Amino acid sequence: MRDYDEVTAFLGEWGPFQRLVFFLLSASIVPNGFSGMSAVFLAGTPEHRCRVPDAANLSGAWRNHSVPLRLQDGRRVPHSCRRYRLAAIANFSALGLEPGRDVDLEQLEQERCLDGWEFSRDVYLSTIVTE
């Protein structure tokens, strides 16, 4: 088996050109590292819940109870991907019924988020997820 130095002898000595190429390639590593680390700060997913459109004619109580609660880490938080069927709660609101007292929220039909999401701005002001 041949020696590594013998195999690469045709490349020549470690001269100014090799040093220049080495340092230029080394300098390109720094911006690549920054772009890789930027995802940590830009791609965070904040807490979110289904958006209820402003055009929906809901009372304040029904607007506050329009998203079902789920158990997460021992506390009840708004569901991030479901809401109560908007037509049903708009009808209950128009009739003057109160959520939880006149209407059992557990029995209401749910739907997926049809109007987008509302994102919490407690941790992040803007991320690629919220945009």
TrEMBL record:
Q: Which positions, given as ranges, span the membrane? A: 20-43
Which UniProt keywords are present, listed alphabetically? Membrane, Transmembrane, Transmembrane helix
Source superkingdom: Eukaryota
UniProt name for this protein: Solute carrier family 22 member 5
Q: Which organism is it from?
A: Prolemur simus
